[in-house]
Protein 1
Amino acid sequence: MKAVILLSGGLDSATILAMACEQGRECHALSIVYGQRHEIEMAAAKRVAAAYGVEEHVIENLDLRIFGASALTADIDVPKDSVDAPGIPITYVPARNTIFLALALGFAEAREAHEIWLGVNAVDYSGYPDCRPEFLSAFQQVILQGTRSGIEHGEPRIVAPLVSLSKADIIRKGISLGVDYSMTHSCYDPSPDGFACGHCDSCILRRRGFEEAGVPDPTHYAHH
Amino acid sequence: MKAVILLSGGLDSATILAMACEQGRECHALSIVYGQRHEIEMAAAKRVAAAYGVEEHVIENLDLRIFGASALTADIDVPKDSVDAPGIPITYVPARNTIFLALALGFAEAREAHEIWLGVNAVDYSGYPDCRPEFLSAFQQVILQGTRSGIEHGEPRIVAPLVSLSKADIIRKGISLGVDYSMTHSCYDPSPDGFACGHCDSCILRRRGFEEAGVPDPTHYAHH
């Protein structure tokens, strides 16, 4: 069965790609370059896609810096050691997952894929609204009402197998499937040579996940 | 009140921009270059944006040709004299309006705009699923569930004032507001020097609209 996999090169998307392969899907990976840190993230996405021998790996370029308003797309510092602060953090990129799912939908419909897999997670996450099941259900309705394949076949279906898992559970799942997490990149603010900062929300959630899972953390952290 | 206006440079989007200006909106125009016919469409969009003195006109580049599967994004001939054929035509671009609305949503949220205006129409149209009110309602739910501004303020709101008007009504409305339709471009298959083909769905719907409205058609057609 054909599936489009949204692949960022991070821990979560590597895990869903491994799951989709294990479940026998023909995987069409889509990565979206949208702002900062292109090269490090895309290098990770390419490593992961190659490791799993995907059918194709398409990279869409999109400049969300012209909208700005996020620490990931504008000249705003990435907050450090603040993962437990309440509210939606400044790393929230306006409508990012809506834009990503919309592009995945166009790709899936063009390829006649039955599924769109994405690695969103609403447990150990930063409180982004577009990582929640309520968002995914609403987007599924857009697919059913707004596309030819949705109207004619009730597809593609959104598959988000990590949405209610903890980060530790995700890592345990990936390890059981043989995922090599040293290929992946999660940090929002890496050094120019690609070392993880260790202090942004993404690094902290990742590090805590490895600790809780009792799995050695393969991440290369920068020394401050 | 701030509003994002999706501006293609066509007849419909010029009309909604005129309406938004008349209603006192601060207009932030967004045009999306996504495949073929960049220059002619973008030239029209720039003319229209300039004529209405928009607050800003942002152009987002996106390559939907890497997905293909449409006469507007792949090497497939644009059908001629077939506007009355049943079904969804091959000019349907997979998930196009979902992608456009997703980008408009990111832009609107970044600018703290209250509204997103788009010129979709479900009367004199080509049967595209993503021009129908059911699609717009579903996308509004995505906004409410998937964005910070949706959760916190119930915004931005989708405004589609043409959705249930005939093409003739749209033209009458625009003429009453002084829209100069000679600035606009609708043809799916223009000649290299920008003349309209007169036979694609978009040309025929436009031409019929001017006839029904009893308004001289300012379009420059190619002579075959």
Protein 2
Amino acid sequence: MDIPDTFTPPQRVLMGPGPSNVAPSVLKAIGQPLVGHLDPSFIKMMEEIKGMLRMVFQTKNEMTFPVSGTGSAGMEFCFVNLIEPGDEVIVGVNGAFGGRMVDVAERCGARVTKVEAPWGQIIEPGQIEEALRKVSNPKVVAVVHAETSTGAESPVAEIGKVVKKAGALYLIDAVTSLGGSPVKIDEWGIDAIYSGTQKCLSCPPGLAPVSFSPRAMKVASHRKTKVQSWYLDVNLLAGYWGEERVYHHTAPISMNYALHAALKEVLEEGLENRWRRHRQNHLALRSGLSAVGLELAAQEGYQLWQLNPIRVPTGVDEAVIRKALLNNFNIEIGAGLGPLKGKIWRVGLMGATSTRDNVRLLLSALCQTLNENGHKVDAAAALAATA
Amino acid sequence: MDIPDTFTPPQRVLMGPGPSNVAPSVLKAIGQPLVGHLDPSFIKMMEEIKGMLRMVFQTKNEMTFPVSGTGSAGMEFCFVNLIEPGDEVIVGVNGAFGGRMVDVAERCGARVTKVEAPWGQIIEPGQIEEALRKVSNPKVVAVVHAETSTGAESPVAEIGKVVKKAGALYLIDAVTSLGGSPVKIDEWGIDAIYSGTQKCLSCPPGLAPVSFSPRAMKVASHRKTKVQSWYLDVNLLAGYWGEERVYHHTAPISMNYALHAALKEVLEEGLENRWRRHRQNHLALRSGLSAVGLELAAQEGYQLWQLNPIRVPTGVDEAVIRKALLNNFNIEIGAGLGPLKGKIWRVGLMGATSTRDNVRLLLSALCQTLNENGHKVDAAAALAATA
């Protein structure tokens, strides 16, 4: 093999399930020269990241920091620290990421009770309540807040009340929700939560913001067995991200630069403003789609603002349209997963990607491509409906 | 808490145990706009990274790719995939990272036999041979090639012959060696290896290049139990980094941009040239230190070129000197760990940091600081000896 040429990425509009587009300030931050992971300037920045994450997560949890891996590493972080072999865990499964939680929990030795809903539907508080009655000693209840595979938002606040009554630990996947719609750790009684940087925080992928309540920390620090992952052991990580600054692993310096800048963008916009922007652009997209007979596949009343699952019209080849959008318009959208493969497109309006211009760009390109492929729609009507 | 100011890192000369300084091409690459992790352009780049890693690792191993975490995640990747509960593992322990391998292996359920040497000494092939005779059914022998905590380089090629004879899998920590001194997977009979990006590859931390031989892949794919880590399961990762491109996790896009550029720098310089440069600058530093009575703490004949453990002279406060170098000269060097705490400074000459100018910069700053702290040395003599 010869040495390849310098890589220059094409300029894409990232409207898939993540990564989303990144603000210029974040790209500038990530390209800065390195300092050491124990440099006083870096340690000060780590404290600032922890503080900003607490604001974004709406929590006072001391143990709030970015795990040095992507969102799935955050999922694994939560389970490996809380679960010991034989522990009983209830997991809501209404999409790919609920299914992944089951897999991860079982690899920790958990006895898992699945609470299921069809893909695109939500997990109801009553379903969790019923499972809690059946399971003898439930240690953890885990639910995906925003199912990236389906576009449905489960009622995490309501489920939290049920979990609290039963005394179990409450574990939430907020990979796609954080920064795009409300996530309120303390108010909702969440004990363990993980997110990713590349969705509504509009930061490159590579870090997983997590938070553990004092109760979760107590469980993790009073285990009978060692945490099965050294890399993700919160008891060791607390030494580096806490007061002591004990060397654990070399933190991804540049990624933390980027997260610092991305969190500043979020907080300078303001959480309420940011949520409103995500909601408005979702509604604009939905109106535009509706005007040409396209509909969202997620449960009415629980549709995510940041991830829009568009039902593929009968007779249209999902992949042909998706590839044409990429090749002709540089727009990336996502395919369906699992039972929704071939049946939906997933259109992300996350973070910096969530703009009125991008909604109109997508609608015009999608309508044109559908027309070119024999499915006639009125692009002007779609665009007019976004107003 | 208020929103913090934009973070601007101080300009450091990174002469600690990593991260090392990064070439401008790498900083330029990491700051490029994002594409999706399934974008055709990104998939092509992934193939190029795999190809370049094979050249740098000197291997034909198909399963050669960067794990989405730092070097310690690479360590965990190797152990979780190869070890099942009850397996017997022999680990060479002559520093912090050998000790960490024991911890990680035990968390996988391994029965570990330690082969020990004092910190700064090497693991001898004969020691491994003896352990292999005593252990009934050794599955894996694990050795740290370049002990970052001590500056000693164990004779990995020679140990490999002993391991091969016994039929065990050979697992190597090449975090600090790769890109700075020879690492030859196929020639040395290595089955599993991990490295980090932030040492002699001169890339920001955040990825762990790994490689599995076909034999290691066979072991990993014929396990009786599931790999305990979902995130690091090579059987799942092979689906994403292999031909099929099945979505597993969202790869850290920007970090892969950086690694692509960093590997290009390595290969454009040429491995032999790069090794020679690391050796020459190590010898220059060693001569300069020797001229003022300072010596290296690692075993004679097995001293790493990229990590130089300088013995702290009697009566000198290690931390005072180290902090003065940072505060007065913007030079980061490392402290000793474990039994070497307070007894050595660790001076990295890794990747882009390994230049004659940096050797002279360090010597002049160190001599001045020692003089200012009452330990008289002749800076001119140190500098003259580097010629």
